[in-house]
């Protein structure tokens, strides 16, 4: 399967997915065909370049949502992705973007999307002193972290007494869950088309 990975920032989930295609659960199942950003200076883009992957960017700043999304979708369609994988892509998507990839856009959210949506999910878990939180991988619709849930995994937060430790534990789960969910999706899709 062909993966387009979209990011706006650091890119640690992008890197873990790239690694999974090289030597992990996505090996032989998926290839990253482009890493795209709405922020031309996103650190994650540089990481992708350093890994030798094709990158593309389109600045979203100052653009109207629908017009930007239509242009971004058109750009991405040139890479014929089977899945559009949001990895810290800090935008709510409009129908202009969702429609061409309907049912094939995934997001990872560092909380239970029934309990927390939007930014600062690890801060929310830390501030509320949660004993555990959840990482959610879901399909993307027009809402903010509202699409159908594909998988969740619990993060044990007992004894995590700094925000950095909460994030460290959460990201460790994010980094293996996202690749695993994609692998399962791709395998199921292959079975259905046999
Ligand atoms: C992750 O915590 C992800 O769950 C959220 O944004 C963050 C992106 O981090 N959607 P990174 O850029 O993948 O390191």
From TrEMBL:
Gene Ontology molecular function: any one: phosphoribosylglycinamide formyltransferase activity
EC number: 2.1.2.2
UniProt keyword Repeat present: no
Domain of life the protein comes from: Bacteria
Family matches, as Pfam families: Formyl_trans_N (PF00551)
InterPro entries assigned to the protein according to its UniProt record, in alphabetical order: Formyl_transf_N, Formyl_transf_N_sf, GART
Formyl transferase N-terminal domain: residues covered: 2-182
Family affiliation: Belongs to the GART family.
Protein name (database record): Phosphoribosylglycinamide formyltransferase
Organism of this sequence: Hymenobacter jeongseonensis
